[in-house]
Amino acid sequence: MIASSNMVIVATLLLLLSAASHVASFSHVSSAGKRCCWLHSQATDLEMTNNGRSTTESPSFVIALTREEGKNGKLNKALQSNSNIKQIISSSSGSAMEVNEIPCIAHADGPDSDNLGKTLSSSDFDYVAITSPEAAKVFATAWIDEGRPKVGSVAAVGKATQEALKAYGIDVAFVPSKATAATLVKELPTLEEATNEGRSTSLLYPASAKAQDTLQNGLEERGFIVTRLNTYDTVTATWTPEEESLAKSTTVACFASPSAVKAWVKNTAQLDCPRALAACIGETSFAACKKNGWKEEDIFYPEKPGIDGWAESVANALQCLAEDKC
Fold first, then answer.
1. How far does Cα 104 stand from its chain's mean position?
2. Which parts of the chain sit beneath pLDDT 70?
């Protein structure tokens, strides 16, 4: 009986140890204070240290999430659940994927930030165009502070921007078929009421100070009257030594804006490291990468912007690395 009990205890301990070894597929927050997740081939057990790194090997694929701090969660989740990424990792014996949050940008008040609330309460517009979740936050905050005045129909570029507005109780009347300013310019209809009154359709554009003139110029060419307010600015984030170290080991950097691309270039200029592949959320960031020196074959982006397509672009970059084509 005693021998039998001992065998049961030993078997139970072995099962617990086996289960624990498989929990290491995803890790915790690193010592640098940034999100650090792992996905690895089942062919290799990684021994994790306190800062989330392996004591036996370095990861084959290191991905940097570069949106401002706290706004990388959706992409991180999409990467961890992407079936193609899992397949790449599992088919590359001994390979591992590490995902780090290395914010490239931070937001500050723009030169027109104080004028937004006054404009909302004193002027009428047929449309308000919101082009990013950050623009949605800035607009909604000013709108709430002014007592929720009546505004025109709200046009949102992209699903994420639409969701951000809805979270503040703002209904969205128009979303272009593709999440770009150029597509909104082509598809936003003129207001029939304005045409009947013999006037131009008016639009308020609360923008980043660094936003291109694509939306403003394009709509004005179509006859719209556009009031642009530079309500916030995008500035380069200052990296800590830990973030610089993570950037040096990055093989794929994920970009959601030209500002993030420029900030990555600026912050890595003095680092002795090869340039990472670029995985972009859409063609605007793709164009920024080309402008800042990436080879076209080292940039990956989806035809239609969005989180899932962005994650698939990362998968394509990893596949390129796995096949030694990049």
1. 11
2. 1-59, 94
